[in-house]
Amino acid sequence: MDIRLNYKTNELLIASTNEWFESNYKQLINDSKPILISNPFIYGEPHFEEKTKKIMIVGQEPKDYNIYNPQINLQDEQMWTIDYLERQVYGIKNGRKYNRSAFWSLQRLLYENGFCTTWNNLDKAHIVDANGKTKPLSLEFEKILGRPLKTDNKTILQREILISKPSAVLFLTGPYYSESMATSLQCEKECIYLKKPKAEKIINNITDEVNLNIPCLWTYHPKYLRRAGKDNMLFYEVLNKLKEVLT
């Protein structure tokens, strides 16, 4: 696989993100005071060969990001995302620390089986508590970040998917993020809620519910999948479901 940067795609992503950053994200910074909000997660991706089966992985939120810095450079944040992804999944030794968590272990399994992944998050920031630790955003805050943008009435996540053009989207968000998903995908929360993963069915096809015209799957966060299944057994259930929807 060619790991050069996908300059054209990343430039489009930054141009799209700028509007979101200046409107939604900065509104959150102002409205959340005195609660501290992290720097934003900025999506970017390496260059993939044309025939690659590219899976956009959508996690819950970033973790352990610094408190918002007004001097932040969006391109630098995007490059950090790409560097971290390349270290974890593609074995590029670039100075980033290797992460053995379940979230990245699942992506390595997908890569070993012919898929390439990109890393995204449903919530693009998190609360930083008094001890500097990560706390999830409230639903009120999620709705600010996930609000459609004025230019095209699409959310930042919808834009990222349209620009990236993945073969499929895999949501690793678990059942408690249904309302945030409905906001970011502009779909009926009742329909999404009915498709939430359960212990007896850990992964669901939500393609029809989210209207993205590409296969979309929803499962638990990999930490739960690892804990609930012996020897990463449930990881293979996710892998097989991806293979099913892409054949």
Fold and architecture overview:
43% of the residues lie in helices and 13% in strands. By secondary structure, the protein is α/β, with parallel strands linked by helices. The chain is globular and about 45 Å long.
Describe, in short, the structure shown.
This protein is α/β, with parallel strands linked by helices and 247 residues long.
Describe the sheet with the most strands: 5 strands, mixed
Strand content: 5-15%
pLDDT averaged residue by residue:
92
Shape: globular
Order of helices and strands: HEEHHEEEHHEHHEHEHH
Biggest sheet: strand arrangement: 3-2-6-8-7
Distinct helical segment count:
10
Task: Explain the layout of strands and helices.
Elements: H1 7-31, E1 36-37, E2 53-59, H2 74-89, H3 102-112, E3 115-121, E4 127-128, E5 134-135, H4 139-145, H5 156-164, E6 168-172, H6 178-185, H7 189-194, E7 203-205, H8 207-210, E8 216-219, H9 222-228, H10 233-245
Parallel strand pairs: 2-3, 2-6, 6-8
Antiparallel strand pairs: 1-4, 4-5, 7-8
Helix pairs in contact: 1-5, 3-9, 4-6
